Amino acid sequence: MGVGCAYELAAVLLRESLPRRWAHTQGVAACARKLAPLVDDRAHVVQVAAVLHDIGYAPPLVDTGFHPLDGARHLRTLDAVDDRVVRLVANHSFALLEAEERGLRPELADEFPLLDDQLLVDALVYCDMTTTPDGGRTTSEERVGEILGRYGADSIVGRFIRRAAPEIHASVGRVRAAADEAGLAL
Questions:
Q1: What digits encode the pLDDT tens for the residues 58-117?
Q2: What DSSP string describes the chain?
Q3: What is the pTM of this model?
């Protein structure tokens, strides 16, 4: 699936029903475009995953209520979607930790093994966790704080994000370091 088709699918699923999620998605995708030189020939994978990473929130796709799993399960049914994209969507932003909080870790891990490409994984984390809900740019520290404020520290998402924060910040740091080394301004 190309980036254009990914946009069409995400727009159909999110634009009307979840406009704020659609704005976030567009911001994540814009960030992925900026990272394209960093990931070279894998740029399309990161860009498509960025556009599709939150489609599991779309009402027609909700099954478990865990958007990475619901979105990846839908993408798996589409022949044109690269397996790396599906696995990135399933595991974006340390989803295994949230899956554990929800009692869904075995399903997520068995159905969608982690992608063995640290730069691609980090690139999607960077794009997702440095983009506000409205599609603007932010820091990972501010984004984690925003998520905690929105969901509450004792919620499933709050517990997950507190556990994932060190890994999120480390991913963001690795992307920034790689971008600096490559002379790419973020």
A1: 999 999 999 999 999 999 999 899 999 999 999 999 999 999 999 999 999 999 999 999
A2: --HHHHHHHHIIIIITT-HHHHHHHHHHHHHHHHHHHHHGGGHHHHHHHHHHTTGGGSGGG-SSS-HHHHHHHHHHT-TTS-HHHHHHHHHTTTHHHHHHHHT-HHHHHHHSPPPS-HHHHHHHHHHHHTB-TTS-B--HHHHHHHHHHHH-TTSHHHHHHHHHHHHHHHHHHHHHHHHHHHT---
A3: 0.94
**137 forms bridges with which residues in the sheet?**
131
Mean pLDDT score of the chain, rounded to an integer?
95
User: Which of 108-144 are b and which e, b meaning 16 or more Cβ less than 10 Å from the residue's Cβ?
Assistant: beeebeebebebbbbbbbbbbbbbeeebeebebeebb
CA–CA gap between residue 107 and residue 186 (Å, rounded): 35
Sequence letter at residue 104: L
